[in-house]
């Protein structure tokens, strides 16, 4: 197969893949969300797609079309849903989207469905949809399995120290910060304008949420920390760490055979 992307395959090639042992599809999920003045709205979807493709090549999986809309951006992790450029779906919609799409892949014969999350707020709604779909499929076929993972959880401590030499403040405030900007500088440098980065201290956030949101409590840049220290070289370190760790977790979790790896 010349491409790991399902949307590039014809139906016969797709069907042949489905007949394989340990057939696995990775569904990348993102959002349409502002990422400050220096990056485009599609960052989360672009990053999860690129990482999914690299992992798919390692483990012999296919990559489904990305989920381009995500659950509501929240002030404490994405700057807030009020910001122009952010277009979201409700939790109920997200659950049903995941449940329907995962259910359809399992019905077509995939053994394993992996959802690779690229938008912080999506996680629990994907969890619900994936759990429901797998439970339903296993009523008639006990081999169906699912895995849910957010790519940033696979950055190891050594990489973290190298990328954040002044200390790491947490993934929630990395929205539009060094992690995403470095990965974009590596994967889509033409889509990043470092001259437009707003260099501000990390957002000081409450440890609770209020309704309605108060737009004055998050930086007007739309980012929760500064991307000024982002580089393509850091992006390369992050990408390599995440690709390797995700692939080895999936190989051991799904008992993928060596023969199915690199089989494209
Ligand atoms: Zn993002």
TrEMBL record:
Pfam families: Creatininase. It comes from the Bacteria. Keywords: Hydrolase, Metal-binding, Zinc. One of its GO terms (molecular function) is metal ion binding. Its cofactor is Zn(2+). The keyword rRNA processing does not apply. GO terms for biological process: creatine biosynthetic process; creatinine catabolic process; riboflavin biosynthetic process. SUPFAM superfamilies: Creatininase. Belongs to the creatininase superfamily. This is Creatininase.
């Amino acid at each position: 197969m010349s491409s790991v992307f399902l949307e590039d395959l014809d139906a016969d090639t797709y069907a042949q893949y489905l007949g394989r042992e340990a057939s696995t599809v990775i569904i990348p999920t993102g959002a349409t969300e502002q990422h400050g003045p220096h990056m485009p709205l599609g960052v989360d979807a672009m990053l999860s797609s690129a990482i999914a493709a690299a992992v798919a090549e390692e483990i012999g999986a296919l990559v489904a079309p990305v989920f381009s809309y995500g659950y509501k951006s929240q002030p404490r992790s994405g700057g807030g849903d009020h910001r122009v450029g952010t277009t979201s779906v409700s939790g109920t919609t997200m659950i049903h989207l995941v449940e329907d799409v995962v259910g359809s892949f399992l019905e077509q014969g995939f053994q394993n469905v992996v959802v690779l999350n690229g938008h912080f707020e999506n996680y629990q709604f994907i969890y619900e949809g994936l759990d429901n779909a797998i439970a339903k499929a296993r009523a008639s076929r006990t081999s169906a399995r699912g895995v849910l993972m957010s790519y940033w959880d696979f950055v190891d401590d050594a990489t973290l120290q190298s990328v954040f030499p002044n200390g790491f403040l947490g993934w929630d405030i990395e929205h539009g910060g060094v992690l995403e900007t470095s990965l974009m500088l590596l994967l889509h440098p033409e889509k990043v304008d470092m001259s437009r980065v707003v260099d501000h201290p990390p957002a000081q956030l409450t440890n609770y949420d209020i309704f309605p949101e108060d737009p004055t409590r998050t930086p007007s840049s739309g980012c929760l920390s500064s991307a000024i220290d982002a580089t393509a070289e850091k992006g390369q370190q992050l990408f390599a760490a995440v690709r390797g760790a995700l692939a080895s977790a999936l190989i051991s979790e799904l008992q993928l055979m060596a023969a199915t790896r690199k089989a494209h």
